[in-house]
Amino acid sequence: MRFAGPSHGSEERSRDMVKLPRLKISQSDVGPQDCTTRSHQNARNVTTRLRERKGFTLLELMIVLAIMGVLVSIATPNLKISIVRAREAVLREDLFQIREAIDQYYADNDKYPPTLQDLINPQEKTKSYLRDLPKDPFTGASDWITVTAEGEDGGVFDAHSASPLIAIDGTTYNSW
User: Fold this and answer.
1) Fold classification of 58-175 (topology level)
2) In the chain, where the domains are located
3) What pTM was estimated for this model as a whole?
4) 3-class SS of residue 2
5) Dihedral sign computed on CA atoms, order 57, 59, 61, 67
6) Angle 142-171-112 (CA atoms, 0-180°, nearest 5)?
7) Rounded distance, CA 131 to CA 7, Å?
8) Does 37 score more than 90 pLDDT?
9) Is 156 within 8 Å of 146 (Cβ atoms)?
10) Conformation bin of residue 154: beta by default, left when phi > 0, alpha when psi is -120 to 50
């Protein structure tokens, strides 16, 4: 059995169809939404509520915080390792510069400097081998371990970090 709908002029169709009386529905019966079924009315109510919302639910905030916590817990170890690697690179460069200055001092004077401070000439900056002694990135001070040359002249032959910490590659910084 089919329900009556718009007629298309066919007699065979109209025999099988049952004609329903047309109901007159006023605007007050339906409400502000012009919906014909309950499912359409519910769908409109949901979309209307979504448009009128101005904040987030507690559940949404908790999910966002959980995701952020996971991302931070993943990124933190990588950040710490990156900082240590950067400090190691600075230490390698500082040691290279100090050793290069010691070699230049030896080439100019045919002897090694008595101390690392002798590489800096505060009166005549043009005769300095370094502008200033660099600070050890791990100790934060200019406390370098010096190795003296054997012989009667002696002097500073090499410099190492004063940090007893262990590097990423497993060696101690004071052995570099």
Assistant:
1) Glycoprotein, Type 4 Pilin (3.30.700)
2) 58-175
3) 0.60
4) strand
5) negative
6) 45
7) 100
8) no
9) yes
10) left
